[in-house]
Design a protein that fits this description.
By secondary structure, the chain is of the alpha+beta class. The chain is built from 21 helices and 21 strands. It has 4 domains: 107 residues, Helicase, Ruva Protein, domain 3 (Orthogonal Bundle); 179 residues, Rossmann fold (3-Layer(aba) Sandwich); 220 residues, Four Helix Bundle (Hemerythrin (Met), subunit A) (Up-down Bundle); 43 residues, no CATH class.
Length: 589
Amino acid sequence: MALPDALTEDRIYHRCPLDKLDFETTESLEDLALPFGQDRALRALEFGASMKAQGFNLFVLGPSGAGKHELVRRVLASHAAEKPVPSDWCHVFNFQQSDKPGAIELPPGEGRIFKADMSELANELKSTIPATFESEEYQARIQELQEEVTRRQQQGLSAIQEEANANNIAMLTTPAGFTFAPMRNGEVIEPEEYKTFSDEEKELVESKVEDLQKKLQQAIQQVPRLRKEVRERVHALNEEMVQLTLGGPMGELREKWAHVPAVVAHLDAVREDVVEHAEAFQDTENGAPAGLLNRYRVNLLVDNAETRGAPVIYEDLPNHQHLAGQIEHRAHQGNLYTDFTLIRAGALHRANGGYLILDARRVLSQPMAWESLKRILFSGEIRIESLERLYGLATTVSQQPEPIPLSVKVVLLGDRMLYYLLSHYDPDFLDLFKVEADFEDDMERDEASYLLYARMIATMARLAGVRALNREAVARLIEHASRLASDQNKLTAHDRVLKDLLTESDHWAGVANSPQVCASHVQQAIDERDYRASRVRERSLEQIRRGVVMIATQGEQVGQVNGLSVLQLGATRFGQPTRITATARPGKG
């Protein structure tokens, strides 16, 4: 049997030819806009970012440390810059159903203007309406109404009194009300004298008194009706005065916001509510109640005034509240209360009209976050509800804001195992995330890739703010990248390891007071990393040297060979010698 040729040093270690690196230091190299060797992932990202059909959200899968997040943000930002800025969204008080605030969509940047206008209106109402009720015109009309009521009451009583006087009967005022007594010659008859009246005269007087009492009772019964009529006329007067006061500011606002019909409808509802609660503004000392004025303010949920293009949002804590929004509560005298001004937006609100980047593992680790995200994507609208209400764990009365239409592209970042598990076990997953962007673990190592990889290293160095690398240092990094890929014809795509190595090499260059990073500094960084993680490897070799683990390196032995396994513990790998033996025994034949 022919034995294989022994491996030479050149065949074991693939050196980087310096003549392929046509530069002195990385300072002269141009930045690399996008990482090379990731054409498949880039095409998928481009397709997913531009695809408008429902369900074409992205799942970016690949190993950790491959720079997925940075690349995804860069690609999405380029697409977002060409898209229009999404609308602003506000929540306003619902005068028909106070526990269901309405949602108003506004052109981008106009949400804060609308909020300021309504705050100014509320402040103006607080001062101008009480001033209207203090005006001379209002006081004169109120006095006129009161005098009219008094006059109408007196007219009824005067008619009864005249009728009584014409029949020689006096109408007397007592602490208990009114009473009647017979008269003679204009004076009330004493009870003793009244007893001398004949039965016919007594019957005539009593009959007339009874008739007058009925008329008096009817006149007195008219008083509550008169008072009610006065109250209605006062209320109508209050409404008239408030209408006159609101005419100017409301007219200006309606004209200003005529291009947004929803705002005009809300302004009309505000005017009607102010008129309906006109009496609440009559307290000239304390003014209108703060709770009443807060009904006219605006809760600006999404403000895109500073946004350029479509938003690209990354949520680092994707729980249910941070995704879908939440309704906060305030404590007052031991009680919790809430209103529409305490509704807070979630990441889906802020990313609406753009892109939302999430870490898949973090979403899955948060209670109910994954189910909430799927429900929102399927429904196409964001409904803010607490988990307790959503799953029937609490029945307390709370706000139920009007849902907001959703148009967002969700991008999940995760490893391959998560993608395959979700694809297999979650029937909804592939309906919502139809585009997979798979990152390569390694890149091709050929003559064309040397300079590209050098430019990638130069770009990393500039972003990390480290010293420029000379040609030998870049060559040593390329050789180490090939070693990390475990293939002489490949280069690793894990830029996190390379960034860490660049930072450590810059540190050792600083210790040596070198103006640039040399190959010796890169080698020192590699050696130091190996030494920091070498405790287990050294203990393994110690066991062999002491004879605890029997590894023979000389002679021959039947049924026994030496093997070498490669162990990876954390970020370090090392070889572990192993004795492999075979045992022969008779079979059953």
